[in-house]
Amino acid sequence: MNETKQKILDVALDLFSQNGFSAVSIRDICKVVDIKESSVYYHFKNKQAILDELLQHFESIATGLMNQLEQALTITQKTIEENLFEQTCDCFFEKYLMDEYCNKIMRLLSIERLSNYEMQKIYNYWIFDKPLNFQTKVFSLLISIGIIKTADSKYLAVKFYAPIYLFAQQWLFCGTLTDEHKQFFRGNAYEHINNFFKEMEGI
Amino acid sequence: MNETKQKILDVALDLFSQNGFSAVSIRDICKVVDIKESSVYYHFKNKQAILDELLQHFESIATGLMNQLEQALTITQKTIEENLFEQTCDCFFEKYLMDEYCNKIMRLLSIERLSNYEMQKIYNYWIFDKPLNFQTKVFSLLISIGIIKTADSKYLAVKFYAPIYLFAQQWLFCGTLTDEHKQFFRGNAYEHINNFFKEMEGI
DNA sequence: TATTGTACCTAACAACTGTTAGATTGTCAA
DNA sequence: TTGACAATCTAACAGTTGTTAGGTACAATA
User: Closest Cα partner for B104 from B36, B24, B3, B163?
Assistant: First the structure.
């Protein structure tokens, strides 16, 4: 891909994720990229097309990561327990919630979803429905192979995911994504996961 | 308070909560209120002053509600159990998360917190710190009077509050606040509270 | 050497932005 | 009736917005 075009996308996402789509002007972007505003229209049909391309790229990344997670459920039973923990942390935490690109897209979506129904659907899918459905599957599986005693897998998924979502909103979706905030998130989220599985073994 | 001034505040909050402060123009507000844009400057020093007054009013409402909740903890022990459940639902759910005014302010804050540090602090205080601190107090109290066996009250607060926050984000902070969405939230949140206390009695 | 295509530029457009100066009403008290 | 005040208006300002038409510089191709 063209170097300038990539730079426009990077800067646009950076500004969109802080101020929202409509509050950022083409000229704001151009000041940072250091080109004249008309040059943007050589690479993109209009302002909306920049946003479209950013979202499309995000959805392809997210689809790939979620597929990777789903595959961790299909391997042999013995390796499930070990693999699941690692995969969840690596795919979902590091490469998704804390990934610079994905994180910025999610910030942007959290703004736009309030006035744009299409954005709301994308946000709901990737932040609520998809992760909760995946966790429900995980717990159904753990119940079926006897690691967990019978329980409501859907409610288990909420109890597992909700604190992670809360910590993410607290540390990963405020201000800029810093290493310090990442460490806060990791500390809280990992501790929660450990506690959660300890408590489940007890029941 | 002046009728027109109140109408400006109402319309401004409605638009700000959907599109964010900077994406709404004075003329957007005036079209709905049906006045000329210069008339706004009779009631407010500038655009920022509208936002300031909205936030100030919210903080006085929120302070009152939280004080009311705190008081539910100081009454005689016997009535605590009965009172706490009712108060939490009434104050925190109905008069706070689902109240039209407070709900709109929280939407607005969720946009502005991404680019404005002051807004971020207000959001964090009223959405994370204050509710979590209150719940921590509640569980400390329940532990001290023997209703709950010894446990980490801070982590209990997270486990209690996180699903409520998740349901709120899912149903109360997307699109417009409808009666249908309110019912979804109530259904999920009340069920969670019941489950939570059932499980605690078991331990 | 002439032509073509890429990647940028200057300059302008009509519409919109927050804000202000000053005029115009209607409603009271003197 | 006069004067003062509150609440609104008209009209304009300087700057910003997304977008376009048309020009320029430079490389690769014919």
Answer: B24
Round to whole Å and give the CA distance between B187 and A165.
20
How close are the terminal C-alpha atoms of chain B, in Å? Answer: 54
Q: What is the dihedral sign for C-alpha A63, A163, B59, B98?
A: positive
CB of A78 under 7 A from strand C?
no
- Asked whether residue A38's C-beta has any atom of DNA/RNA strand C within 7 A, the reply is yes
Give the position of tokens 């319309």: B11
- Sign (positive/negative) of CA torsion B30, B34, B35, B41? negative
Question: pLDDT digit string (tens) for B124-149?
Answer: 999 999 999 999 999 998 888 888 88
In chain B, residues with a C-beta closer than 8 Å to the C-beta of A18 are 114-115
Cβ of B27 near strand C (under 7 Å)? The reply is: yes
**Residue B28 CA, nucleotide C15 C1', distance (Å):** 14
Q: Which of A170, A129, A146 is nearest to B129 (CA)?
A: A170
User: Is A61 a residue whose pLDDT tops 70?
Assistant: yes
As a whole number of angstroms, the distance between CA B34 and CA B30 comes to 5
Residue A79 binned pLDDT confidence (cut-offs 50, 70, 90): low
Average pLDDT over residues B172-185: 95
Q: Is A146 on the interface with B (CB under 8 A)?
A: no
Show residues of chain B in contact with A153, CB under 8 Å. none
Q: Is the dihedral of CA B195, B158, B67, B20 positive or negative?
A: negative
